[in-house]
Amino acid sequence: MGKKSKQKKKIILPPELPPEVPDDEIEVSEEDLQFVNENVDYAGFVSGLDTTSITKHVTRVADLKEDALERLYERRLQKKKLKEKEEEEKEKERRVEVDRVDALPVKMAEKKGGDGEEEDGGGDKGIVRLTKTERRAKLKKSKKEAKKLGKQVENTEQVEATPQAAVLAEVKEDLTAEATFETKKHKLAELGIALLADPESNIKSLKEMLQFCLDGDDALIKLGLLSLLAVFKDIIPGYRIRLPTEKELEMKVSKEVKKMRFYESTLLSVYKSYLQKLVLLEKKSKFQHVAVRCICTLLEAVPHFNFRESLLAAVVKNTGSQDDVIRRLSCSAIKSIFVNEGKHGGAATVEAVELIADHVKALNCQLHPDSVEVFMSLSFHEDLGKPGEPGKESKVKNKKNRKRKNAEEPSQLQESDRKKSKKELMAKMREEVTADYKSAVFTPDVKEQRKMQSDVLSALFETYFRILKHTMQSTAASSQANGTLGGGEFGAHPLLAPCLNGLGKFTHFIDLDYMGDLMNYLKKLAAGGSSSDNSSEKCAKVLTVSERLQCCIVAFKVMRSNLDALNVDLQGFFVQLYNLILEYRPGRDQGEVLAEALKIMLCEDRQHDMQKAAAFVKRLATFSLCFGSAESMAALVTLKQLLQKNVKCRNLLENDAGGGSVSGSIAKFQPYATDPNLSGALASVLWELDLLCKHYQPAISTIASSISTMSTSHNQVYLSSTSPQQVFRDLSLEQESFNPKPDLRKSNNKRKRVSGTSKLATIEENLNSTGSLDEDELRKKLSNHFNLLRDFKENEKLRTELDRTTSALQLYEEYKKQKKKTARRGIKIGEKGA
């Protein structure tokens, strides 16, 4: 009995759950319902049950598929088998027996009257059993092995469940990120609305809004920047904030003043950190557009506020950017500063022009043309340049004082001293009042305006002259290098065209001391950048035709604005125009620049030499034959005006090839002469007009016919209402929608067949129908036609490929047949030999 008590009892497992029965098959009787309703109080423990743990144990298999269910059931069976094996091993351990071979001999107690049979019968009692320590060691080993097997099974389950868990984790992370983003967005909106409603009491929320710009989410950072931009545009005051000094802080002030100081200091500090953040984010490609947009809008909205210098520096740097969006935003911001000077009083204009001048100097004139073209938005007051007459009032006052002094007697010295003291006090009071008035009134002083305008003009013309000097040096260097000097990212001379446009606009503000140097620069640039004849052809390749024409235009504008002060010979510019007319190419050069040059240099100039005018008339007639309708129309308009102004040049319309008595010293026309005075154009005839009368463009044919019918009488006066520029613009726009009408003349020949007349009629009908059709319909028909042609070509290709494949198959079949024949012949020969 003692040995049996020492043995451990078997562990009895709980019974398995009953089989699941569907809800539809369960039938509940009325008695059961009545019992439950009567004993509701006894069922209170049901509400406290842990339903989640029960569902985990019971319905853990609910959402699994058939394959997964099978795997689960197999794993459960494996676990059960493992448990059964462990239990069996434990039972065996309790009854462990040692083999009789390994058992040690033990002395047995002898019994009285013992025989050999009793010893044989008690042989089982001679087996040695294990001690308790050995049993415990074996149990520990078995438990460790069982744990290892259980862990391996669990790991296999986890490996199969990991893909589903990973997907669920990702979905949960996405949902949490979206929820946090929405909450932060709502928080940002609430802070912004509160600030706009009452900025003084909610000024602390500015720092909270700034914290959103430090978030890790890119979309939230952009929202924070834009929302802060809207808030700053609304709450920034209309004056510059001056922080109080240390002495002012030590003084006792009221609560309202303290509140105002706190508001201004927090606003200024947050605004400063916001600008620093924008400058940092501008360098990153993700936030570059948003940061530049915020900087430009702040500069346009509040150019009077603090830290304007940092905003201007960032914007001026971006005017030469390669990104079109950033460059346009920056240029529009600077143009708004130049136009809306009432917001900042003109101080921002001075700073912006000086910064652009420094930027051009630092980058050696290698910038985008838009960075200098913004100067065209500047406006100057011409009355400010004329100083007033401040001596009038002082003279009147001195006269009155002298009369009073002569009338006074020497005995009244004491009274005069008193009056002087009173006058001094009054003068001091007036000065204080005027100072306060100036600080309160927004209109700046005339002296300050004059000083700011002079600073702007000096920086502006410094930039323009630097660009001209740089182009001169670069053209000289390229001429020495045989024209192999390459340009930068924006071309060889990107800033020359906007520089010349600005000089043409602001030429009346240039000082007379610089006029001579300017004209010399323009003459050299119009010639190609060098005054020597040997290198003129090489330098002409460096500058374009339109740039050289602009130099001529600017020179004539400078002369017109300063007629009385300058005495400059413009013959060199006429020579350049005469040569550049034939160097013009429509696709390469700008036609509007050529039309402007013809208008300013030929149409508006009153005095022309007869030889020079005739040379230009002949050159324009040949030019109108070579190029498009817009260019030829502008040339014919100038030609007509020259003929109307110079009556003697109308002899070119006659058929006298020698020119008669008007031909002058040069009796023969030289078309390749570079100087118009040496061309001898009066000895030629305008035979080009006969060809131009048959031009397909009706406007050109009409003007050519009107010029050819012009009489040589001296009583005609020409009053021109059209200019070459206007005609060029009109015809360049009309060329896009111009459709020349065909000249289908009816034949009166009766011997022609009926088929020919029917063909002509069908052609006329088709042409009339196409003239009445819209462009969209024509495009559709043409697209259908070309699609058909493309289909035909594709069909031909496919047919050729099919022919190739069929031929290849036929060859392969023939090859097979020949192979079979050879095999049969070999078999027959073998049989005969056998």
TrEMBL record:
Residue span, CCAAT-binding factor domain: 549-704
Compositional bias of kind Basic and acidic residues: 385-396
Compositionally biased intervals (Basic residues): 1-11
Regions annotated as coiled coil: 69-102
Residue ranges occupied by any Nucleolar complex-associated protein 3 N-terminal domain in the UniProt entry: 184-274
SUPFAM superfamilies (alphabetical): ARM repeat (SSF48371)
Family the entry assigns: Belongs to the CBF/MAK21 family.
This protein's name: Nucleolar complex protein 3 homolog
Taxonomic source organism: Salix dunnii
